[in-house]
Amino acid sequence: MRAWIAPALVLLSTAALVAQQPTVNVPKTAPAPTLWPTGNAKPAAADIATMNEVIAFERKMEAAVVRGDVRTLEPMLADDFIFTHGDGWVTGGAPLKTDTKASWLAYVAKDPKPYIYRELDHVQVELHGDIALTLGRYLYLPRTTDTKPATSHLYVWFERVYQKRNGKWLHLSHKTVKGPVRDDDTAN
Predict the structure, then answer these.
(1) Less Cβ around it within 10 Å: N or C end of the chain?
(2) What angle do CA 185, 159, 35 make, to 5 degrees?
């Protein structure tokens, strides 16, 4: 009889901890009306396949960021990768922050992990040979140290640049062009 008491206590303790975790509603996202920029002619089937490949790469990258998985993320970033946060720079001001490959990987590796989720939304792909630009937004919920978790996600509109080198996509640059904006902010 004693043999089952310890496993039962572990199970009950785990269930109690899970019950204390706040429920997070990840918002539903959607593809853009077209995979290619609005107003452009429909690309050839081979280009559509490449566009889907870029989107899949971008989703894999976002998932690695949320997990804090720098082993997956590191080879996806070019050595000269730049991440420009916030949209102050588009109005002549300073960006909120600029990351290099090293500083972005260090941020992603933090414990606790910086993000609860990051979901791509309305992403379009523009191809220029071995260069791909993605235009869209991601919705995210940052992890906070508050006892009361954030309930409203944020989003940013972005433009990203990728290049295919030696048969693999590399993320060269991210520029936030609008945001961050709170989902419940009426001044979108």
Answers:
(1) N
(2) 95
Closest C-alpha to 169, from 82, 66, 20, 60: 60
Token pair in block for residue 177:
């062009």
**Whole-angstrom distance, CA of residue 125 vs CA of residue 131:** 10
Helices (H) and strands (E) in the chain, counts: 4, 6
**Domains of the chain by range and CATH?**
30-36+44-182 (3.10.450.50)
List the Cα angle 163/167/169 in 5-degree steps.
35
The span from the CA of 36 to the CA of 127, in Å, is: 9
Spatial separation of the C-alpha atoms in residues 14 and 30, rounded to whole Å: 35
Which residues make beta-bridge pairs with 162?
A: 132, 171
| Model pLDDT, residue 89 | 80
* pTM for this prediction: 0.82
